[in-house]
Specification:
Layout (H helix, E strand, L loop, with lengths): L5 E5 L7 H11 L3 E6 L5 H10 L5 E4 L5 H14 L5 E4 L18 H22 L7 E7 L12 H20 L4 E8 L13 H11 L8 H12 L10 E4 L9
Helix pairs in contact: 1-7, 3-4, 4-5
Length: 254
Amino acid sequence: MLKGRNGIIFGVANKRSIAFACAQAAAAQGARLILTYQGERLAEGCRELAASLPGGAIALPCDVGSDAALDAAFVAIAAHMPRVDFAVHSIAFAQKEELEGEFVSTTRQGFSVAHEISSYSLTAIAQRLLPLMPEGGALVTMTYLGAVRVVPHYNVMGLAKASLEASVRYLAADLGPRGIRVNAVSAGPIRTLAASGISDFQSVLAVARARAPLRRNTDAAEVADATVFLVSDLSRGITGDVIHVDGGFHITTF
């Protein structure tokens, strides 16, 4: 499905991350990839994961919290991949203390950090992708049901994801005339490094497993397959949308 296509997977943290599952699925479909990571602490692991993919991949640092660092990252990206066909944004962060207790206790700094990293980074990346997508392309981000429903302990991340989903719609409207599609995948709860920061995450998994029509939890490979669909020509008529991959949990009311 992606043979001959060039793609960037932003936000690879480890082998259990949704970002890496997307990289595996895209590589299996023939894509040539660049993987990005945040900070030198993740550099060696990301390089090893990139090398493990069919045909290999390039691993590059990308700090989305700094315009200067983003500019530097895209200089490196363009040097390796002057034409990009698709990109996957799998980046989210909130300070751990903001995911504990009540949402009403959210601090100004915690609110700002969660929105800057988890939401604005999609727009910042889209701005820099434009010169690399002169003939169009596809951009997919990762969201969660906490954007539209109250999820215990998700707190400020729920607002950041709501902002992210609104960004998808506005970016889709702006970039559609240039042939660039923008969509989101709303994944069910998955045991990842990012999820480990959510208090009592085991209960979130248990509720999803009990109430989802499929009566099971979502896995990263299912999210990755949907993402490959959204960056492929099979979804060429879809933009500005949020596709749920959560076993149907989002349709339940109790």
